[in-house]
Amino acid sequence: MKARRDRTGLAALAPFLWLGLFFLFPFLLVAKLSLSDTALAIPPYTPRIYWSAGLAGLKTFFAALDFETYARLTSDRLYIVAYLSSLKFAAISTGILLILGYPLAYAMARCAPAVRQALLMAMILPFWTSFLIRVYALIGILKPEGLLNTALRLVGLGPVNILNTETAIYIGLVYAYLPFMVLPLYAVLERQQHDLLEAAADLGCTPFEAFWRVTFPLSLPGVAAGALLCFIPMVGEFVIPDLLGGSSTLMLGKTIWTEFFANRDWPAASAVAIVLLFTLVVPIVLYQRQQAKLMEAGR
Amino acid sequence: MKRGLTTFNIASLVIGFGFLYLPIVLLVIYSFNASRLVTVWGGFSTKWYASLFRNEQLLDAIWVTFRIGLISATIATVLGTFAAVALVRAGRFKGRTLFSGMIFAPLVMPEVILGLSLLLLFVSLGLPRGFWTVTVSHATVTMCYAAVVIQARLSAFDRQLEEAAQDLGCPPIKAFFAITLPNIAPAVAAAWMLAFTLSLDDLVIASFTSGPGSTTLPMRIYSQVRLGVSPEINAVSTLLIGLVATGVIAVYLFQMRKRREA
Amino acid sequence: MTERSRPRLNIGAVRSTFAPWADPAAKPLVRFENVVKRFDGETAVNGVSLDIYPGEFFALLGPSGCGKTTLMRLLAGFETPDSGRITLAGEDLAGKPPHQRPVNMMFQSYALFPHLSVERNIAFGLKQQGMPKDQIADRVTEMLALVRLDGLARRKPHQLSGGQRQRVALARAIAPRPKMLLLDEPLAALDKKLREETQFELMALQQQLGMTFLIVTHDQEEAMVTADRIAVMRSGEIVQIGRPADVYEAPNSRYVADFIGDVNIFEGKAEFADGTTVRMSSPEAPGGFDIVEDDLLDVGSTAWLAVRPEKIEVHLDEPPPGPNRMAGKIEDIGYLGDWTTYLVELESGRTIRAARANAKRFVDRPVDWDDKVWLTFARDAGVVLTQ
After folding, report:
1. CB C105, CB C184: distance < 8 Å
2. A244 in a domain, yes or no?
3. Which of A125, B37, B85, C354 has the fewest CB atoms nearer than 10 Å to its CB?
4. Is A19 a domain residue?
5. Chain A residues 69-98 with a CB less than 8 Å from chain C
């Protein structure tokens, strides 16, 4: 009879195998490749496993793996700069997103229910719209002869050169990830009972004190979720630095892309990916814990 | 929370939503610009749409993208439903932590890493890259989104309904299909739509995993954007935005009406 | 159902001849034998043995977490016993999944299928049995009439009131003609007035159908009104089984006495017991207690006397000295309309509860706060308990 309940676990079988093959296993390949060397071949790396040689082939394969690529990464200043600037861009943008997103989510949560629904809809809509197209739309505003400079000229200012600078990357990151920050914040703020604030007021809090001592502490899970949801993918962001940052800005996502497509240095791309992954392991685990906790609470 | 918007609240809303929507609105407006110079308004025209429909490369890309989206979203929804059932219903099973890790991690993992690792898989399996490798890759990533969407609805679903069906003589599997599935259907549909649009929008993973003859629309747009802003891209972007917005708003209104009936 | 056809409150009198549990030849419909169920090491049901007879209205009564719902779910098949046996009409239920068991359950949340109309909800079990379409239609119509929901067949559950939903759930569970109907807190979601009405409707329905009902409730009044027999449960075990009047008037432990209705419990020492009378000394009563009781207690052992508030009389004038007499001061008065409850502080400092029916509209000399009063009760008013 015990078996009857356990059968539900079988539902996991198909997705489990699928993810094992297409998500987990490929990471081992990335790890392996990061220990390989580049070669003028197709595919462009060495060593390869020759199954025909049997166990001996496997042995020579493992013997040929080394950490040379990683050594190359640490000795090359460009990689180190790319690593640090990725973290910097992601961290500062997360900060800006919080400062911008919190008041927005808070204001949404304070609206009348019908308005709230419509605003939520308006916040979700960009979420569904192509990331690439939204970044592209931003170019139309930021470029030298774009709308921003046209507007500035009308009031007698400018022109400013933003496209292909760090500023453009910050604007792009904040613009693209704003819904990812606002939605988790809104979710926690909207759930909060109005009578909590009334109770706080009754106990002598000014509206600001009530916000600071009741609303804000209660919204911290949303702050954490939003920050992680933005920070993690931003570190590895490719499209925004590539399209808005120009050739001089360095970020890890772009580095992987360039190593892979332009330089055909697959081991280097893999090694950068592994470094990126290790950097993100802690925030990813934190995020996952948080989601699991929310899931438990939702039951 | 309710009532009493302060000036600060209203300013936050205006700035936030203005920032979100201004670039998109401009893009849509300029897609009807007769002038090729994007900043100069040369009068209303639909000529970019017309030239779009003569651009075979772009049309090919659209067709490929749609087919990939349809197939991958369907695979993702089926697998995502299974995954959601396991996450919500199965309690503790062997490998649960690993399993939920594999579901949640792709949601935040940088796409570049996902794309690279999938590519290496296909290379090492000796599979030629093309339509099917992109489809499988998209299904892999989007099934995690699908699982999360369905999981949310499923965990809110009253378990007793299934028990009631069993009590009335329905075997467990049939109870799931007769009772649970119809009730979580909106979430399953939403999951499919999400998977479909994610597949439609993806540039990075498709760039890694596609091969000759399977260039997707975002890849085309990307290569054109790198060459500079072009009115034709404005037009195709407007069409895409219009499509997604219509779909999402229609579903939203439908749900609102249903809720009002309830 | 008209007002007149409803049975009187004194259900024991109406069905006084119905007592299959007292008949050694009677075959039980359901038999629990030493059933044990644990969840993560916590014992929810601890060795329960219980017989329920055909046609009986049986109540499982106890506070939340006492294992009563688990016991019902074991019978429905949603839980599997760790040890012990459950048989239904002589057949062992072990290994039978819920959908193959000929019992139906009415869920506490009603668990109406939100995507199906009322009639399709009721037809659900019938379809599952493979009943032909026209027969299903007839049966559904019959069920709708039975629970007075004719005309609402096409409604969806969310378009119904709480009371209507409750009746749909009832009709749905009865429709497949189960051997037994299980009701899990069936009235908990209704307001007080509707709950009282529905209690009587349930009883009438049960008699009309001749079906065996098992009800799980934490509401002692609900159990007392509806059931032929009550099993009082506490932390996974059955403490007492009996007819409502037995359980109320002759509780076998302080727990049961306290759980069912209000009670005053006095601790004392047995001084004399001859099989008809028990005499106890107690610091609460200077004259001791003198009770009609057939228990043979050891002299000197500790015993407890349980007396219901309504059996204690309140006097403003001092009665003659003797047993079963205590003096005190009115501490509080609770006027409930039909009843008045007095809280009386004894000289020992204990507070005692006494209740009086307000039979007259006006009383010459009403009892007032801080009045000095005497409490007495008859020799057969209390029960002596040893556990």
Report:
1. yes
2. yes
3. B37
4. no
5. none
Q: Is A133 among the domain residues?
A: yes
Query: Which residue in the block uniquely carries the two structure tokens 């049309």?
Result: B59
Kindly report the CATH number assigned to the domain that includes residue C323: 2.40.50.140
Q: Does one domain contain both C76 and C209?
A: yes
Burial of C8 (0-12, 13-18, 19+ CB in 10 A): exposed
The total number of structural domains that make up chain A: 1
* ipTM computed for the complex: 0.86
Interface residue of C80, C83, C101 to substitute, partner A, most A CBs within 10 Å: C80
Please tell me which residue of chain B has the smallest CA distance to C129.
B169
- The tens-digit pLDDT sequence of chain C (387 residues) is 333 333 333 434 445 578 888 888 889 999 999 999 999 888 999 999 999 999 999 999 999 989 999 999 999 998 999 999 999 999 999 988 888 899 999 998 899 998 889 999 999 999 888 899 999 999 999 999 999 999 999 999 989 999 999 999 999 999 999 999 999 999 988 888 899 899 999 999 999 999 999 999 999 989 999 999 999 999 999 999 999 998 998 898 889 998 888 899 998 898 888 888 889 998 888 888 988 887 778 888 888 999 999 999 999 888 888 899 999 999 999 888 888 999 999 988 889 999 988 888 777 678 888 889 999 999 888 888 887
Q: Domains along chain B?
A: 46-261 (1.10.3720.10)
Q: From residue A17, how far is each of A197, B75, B99, B148, B191 by CA, in Å?
A: 49, 14, 10, 18, 21
E strands within A203-265?
A: none
**AA letter at A24:** L
Closest approach of chain A CAs to the CA of C30, in angstroms?
A: 20
* Whether residue C19 is found in the same domain as residue C46: yes
Domain range for C70: 11-102+179-256
Q: Is residue B112 a contact partner of residue A273, using CB atoms and an 8 Å limit?
A: yes
Q: Judge whether C108 lies within some domain.
A: no
Count contacts between A and B (CB, < 8 Å).
Answer: 291
Dihedrals phi, psi of C282, to nearest 5 degrees: -150, 140
> Tokens 């704003």 appear where?
A178
